[in-house]
Fold:
Amino acid sequence: MSDDNKWTTIERRFEASIDRVWDMWASSELFAQWYGPNGMTIPVAEMDVKAGGIRKICVEMKMPDRTMTMWFIGEYKEVQKPNRLVYTESMSDADGNIISPTQMGMPEGHPEVTEIIVELSEDNGGTKMKMVHIGVPAGSRGESGWHQAMDKMAALLS
Structure:
């Protein structure tokens, strides 16, 4: 990963055990409570957290005139509880069929498949987390959404 500075990288320290932070990523019930930018809910979080397992997530935002829904499908590549989680993510329809990012209004050149790497380590009774989202540029709206989601996770853990 020689383009580290090109992709979204978030490092946080949580005042929670490594097992609690791991569960935020690995439990569909907990994941649905914090994932996504402010104002978004997660009505569907199907997560088979094992190497080769599939994940299917629905992100929803209710507006006065309509409800915006986005679906994501991916595969777990590495699951090393409680230290490392690697999975892919693609935009999809509700049936899990991959949709091109440009069809979803993303800028030209946005990859069809991105990869999320989560690394956790114990730190004086708390947990250090490093999350890299390969394919989502640093400084993008996607990075901003991740920061909002991490704030929600921190609030749940406190």
In short: Residues 25 and 31 are 6 Å apart (CA to CA). The two ends are 33 Å apart (CA to CA).
